[in-house]
């Protein structure tokens, strides 16, 4: 009896380690935006095969990119207070296993998309994986304070991937959804970077608060939230969404701008994380509003 308990505990801990490598909360938000892209691509019922296998394939390849990110950033993660407990720096798993795990996820996801969805979605998802895991993590993250701006397109792709999974073609409306996430990404991430400025400085990562200062970054966040508010109006202006989405978008934009304004002009050390957390809810609710507007209003 007693010998069986440690084995079971080891099994559960290993399962949790591999799950942590995939960054499940991030993947869940990405898949939500992919679902919205799928739904907005058609006025009819979603076909089950590209919907099911599209989400699985996109999820697998996004998880692969996350695992490669863990692998490439393991030295940095060991230095930073936010990440030193991750599986690799904590010694819960070795690098070769993470590489094989990430490779298996990527190959499985690509094969599934190519065989069961369509070639366009498979190659676009592969390009997103390379953009995040290689171009951003391996190069841009260490090369320029505009790293998250330039590489933001890779993380903004899920709505387009969802759209192409159903239609097999690129569409301007899908690119509007990509643009929303692309403009949303810098204020979202820079708010976290302000909170973790000392960590990034210690790891020698040229994030904007480290290279240009916190005040400059706060101003950039505020300006981006204003730009985001404008971009969020585009689905209404092109007729993709209606009044429900418009009202929700205006409220969310006002809330994001207000949070960024407080970050810029009030002396509150906790405001950066509050702005970061608000940005997550902003994107979730915004895309949920797109979905509700499409089906029920």
Report the helical percentage: over 70%
Average pLDDT for all residues: 89
- Overall structural class, as computed from helix and strand content, comes to mainly alpha
How are helices and strands ordered from N to C? HHHHHHHHHHHHHHHH
Straight-line N-to-C gap: 59 Å
Query: Judging from the principal axes of the Cα atoms, what is the shape?
Result: flat
Give the radius of gyration.
Answer: 20 Å
Our count of helices gives: 16
Q: What is the strand tally? A: 0
Query: How much strand?
Result: under 5%
Largest sheet: none
Poorly predicted sequence stretches spanning 5 or more consecutive residues:
1-9
3D architecture notes:
The protein is mainly α and 297 residues long. It is 80% helix and 0% strand. Helix 13 packs antiparallel against helix 15 (243-265). It is flat.
Features:
0% strand, disordered N terminus, 297 residues, mainly alpha
In a nutshell, what does this entry contain?
By secondary structure, the protein is mainly α. It has helices at residues 4-21, 24-40, 48-72, 74-79, 95-116, 119-143, 147-150, 152-155, 158-167, 172-195, 197-202, 208-212, 214-231, 234-237, 243-265, 271-296. The longest helix has 26 residues, at 271-296.
What's the structural blueprint in terms of helices and strands?
Layout: H1 4-21, H2 24-40, H3 48-72, H4 74-79, H5 95-116, H6 119-143, H7 147-150, H8 152-155, H9 158-167, H10 172-195, H11 197-202, H12 208-212, H13 214-231, H14 234-237, H15 243-265, H16 271-296
Helix pairs in contact: 2-3, 2-9, 2-16, 3-5, 3-6, 3-9, 5-6, 6-9, 9-10, 10-13, 10-16, 13-15, 15-16
